[in-house]
Amino acid sequence: MDSRLPALAEHLLLIERELRVQGWWREAAPSAEALASVEPFCVDTLDFDQWLQWIFLPRMKSILEQDLPLPNASGILAMAEMVYADQPAQSRNLKLLLAQFDELISQSR
Q1: Residue 98 pLDDT
Q2: Among candidates 98, 104, 40, which has minimal Cα distance to 72?
Q3: Considering the chain, what percentage of its residues have pLDDT values greater than 90?
Q4: Structural domains of the chain, with CATH
């Protein structure tokens, strides 16, 4: 078993919690068409927080639950920094969690 799995699972829960704390968690799912975007981060159809909630978190949870290979790299923080550039204080904790996630993914097994 990959030694990073417990920390990654914890970070997914912390990211979800932070989305909820900030009021960025949504009860209603986007349309199937919006979720089917082929653009990176679904930038043409979803807000970044929607992408985190409806694409990123479910995919990562599935990878962990099915013991699938983890991605070799993660660059989610860079996107968050662009998206939340005008909300530095409100997004600080989310960006910290995403930075830690990126770091965990980049660590060797």
Answers
A1: 98
A2: 104
A3: 93
A4: 5-24+43-106 (1.20.1440.40)
Give the mean model confidence (pLDDT) for residues 50-55.
98
Token pair in block for residue 76 = 């989610």
User: What percent of the chain has a predicted confidence (pLDDT) above 70?
Assistant: 99
Start-to-end C-alpha separation, the chain = 9
The model carries a pTM of 0.94
Residue 96's closest CA among 6, 1, 2, 17? Answer: 17
| Alpha-carbon gap, residue 102 to 76, rounded angstroms | 7
56: CB partners within 8 A, 6+ apart = 76
pLDDT band at 109 (very low <50, low <70, confident <90, very high): low
Which uninterrupted H or E stretch holds 60?
A: helix 57-65
Q: 16: which 2 tokens?
A: 């979800």
Burial of 18 (0-12, 13-18, 19+ CB in 10 A): buried
